[in-house]
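Re: folding output
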Amino acid sequence: MPETLYQTPLHTFIEYVKILVAALIIAVLLRSFIIQPFIIPSESMINTLQVGDRLFVNKFSYGIHLPFVVKEIFSTGEPELGDIVVFPFPQNKSEDYIKRVVGIPGDKLEMRDKKLFRNGLPLEEPYAIHTGRDIDPYRDNFLPKTVPPGKVFVLGDNRDNSRDSRYWGFVDKDEIHGRAFIIYWSSINLTDIKWDRIGRLLR
């Protein structure tokens, strides 16, 4: 007579608990050290990212973070111009934001009538859009500022509809969760799946 894998209901229960605990540990490790899912909640990164896009964020891009710890414990790289990054909102660390890096340490940035200048030269930004023609003296113009060491300057691609470094300043490099690299799903509801966006690499 063949042996029974689980001799009693208690043995069966214990084995299922072990499986669930192992799955939970793996999920926590993946999210903490390898990839993090992120959902686009607003229009601040249109046209690159749209409401309902689901992204994977590479958590190895810039540093290693412990679970529930904001600051990195080990650096693995530096943000580059054009990277799309996820980070805790500087004014509310419990909320994550996603923006594009437009300035790295040492860069001198200035905005004149919606046009961004980096180190005195206009920055080519094919991803940036402007949905309004009016000039907001605070949003669309700022005096030259230099990005400090260990910081980055970030903007939303939808420049006229984004709360970003123009309003609350620089982002600490060692607080960045990682770089968004692929859209794995895109829908607002089950009847509006954007199939053409799924699998799109981000840059």
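--- second protein (sequence, then structure) ---
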Amino acid sequence: MKVSPSVISCKLEILKEQILESVDAGADSFHIDIMDGNFVPNLTVGADFIRAIRKVTDITLEAHMMILDPEKYWKSFADSGADILYFHYETPFDFDSVHKRIKEMGKQIGMVINPDTPVDVLKNFLTRLDMVLIMSVYPGFSGQKFIESTPEKIRELKEIIDEIAPHVRIEVDGGVTDITGRLLKESGADIIVSASYIYGGNIRERIGILKNI
């Protein structure tokens, strides 16, 4: 299982040390939650934070844009070092324009769906996506309880992807632990995002557990 630690739960005073420890433990990428206080009820980081992490590591950085106007800001995140740009289906943006420009930059594009959004809405986009991120909690805060219907949603999406866009990878974010991570793997997830589970304990041990479920 590929693991993308969510750095929203890192301790900022030792961010560099925890990033390097995560890489050494086998992290496959880093998930960066960008929240504007409007699309979700929380305010986090921006382009400068991505730039700081890029200076520490060269592994894949995912910019998860939980913001009302992603079309206005995505390029600043890409220029700062993000490799994958995640857009929420629930926010308005011109997919065709954004897709063209992201591909011209040599970056990847992903789409996120919230817990209440059905997977069918992705059908018209899948062939042009690299990633789909399924939220297994309501976006906004780390440490929420895993939504138990998520595995069925993953299985449904996996069937669609296998039929029309087998190159697309499925990532899941929210409430991921060793227990829920196993359910996600069995359902067809390729990558799991974990925040408080990883950074609330022994980083090396917990990344290792998730990678080997």
